[in-house]
């Protein structure tokens, strides 16, 4: 059941790139966090703190803003059109920058500070992820066109995109596992989501130019929705264990153990003549036993 749900989710995510722009599909990945939190609350009896509810609401509000103001999907009739977009100077420069940064992170920073700096591993995954999404979208569109009767797998460009997807996914899985192994998952997941989404939006804007036909108000509203999703994601991850921790706090205050110390009596002679044998000439001062607070 678990593996079937995972595979089904990935297939649906893959299909979404064939029918919707990447700037819409990628940020909406935060909805999986909401579903996980809600199912864990009802099925696994995990406590969802009030801040977790606030985080879910923020993710829903941000997702709604992105959906309402997202750019329209570009009409593509062949993989060669995607290849033409990918071979434009702007996207080639972006790919070269990404490749150089990834190589520097892998061969210089990762051996020296990868175990101490979380951003090294996450940076590799996020940069490679932006290229992966562009190639996944190309393969998804090719598959959609092929199923409609226009075979796209006869072109070498389609298989080139498939090879790039496989290579990038292997690199991402390797360094994401290293990040999860060395650092706290509650910190890795939101940071990776933020960096991956940002680089994917940048790559999509450069390659597909999806926001060229959008007005300034639509772009600003979509960006505000994205920031709202980021806030909700961080709140969810930061407070996901807060409910269990609050439940573990004891509600009864333990009884304070008090001890009573008995102070011996002290006889003090106050007679000016020095005659302390008479009971009237002696004032006995007794210290009262201490009482517990």
TrEMBL record:
It is a multi-pass membrane protein. The chain crosses the membrane at residues 14-43, 50-71, 91-111, 118-143, 155-175, 187-207, 219-236. Keywords: Cell membrane, Endosome, Ion transport, Magnesium, Membrane, Transmembrane, Transmembrane helix, Transport. One of its GO terms (cellular component) is early endosome. One of its GO terms (molecular function) is magnesium ion transmembrane transporter activity. Signal peptide: none annotated. It is found in: Cell membrane; Early endosome; Membrane. Belongs to the NIPA (TC 2.A.7) family. Acts as a Mg(2+) transporter. Can also transport other divalent cations such as Fe(2+), Sr(2+), Ba(2+), Mn(2+) and Co(2+) but to a much less extent than Mg(2+). Homodimer. This is Probable magnesium transporter. It comes from Rhynchospora pubera. The lineage of its organism: Eukaryota, Viridiplantae, Streptophyta, Embryophyta, Tracheophyta.
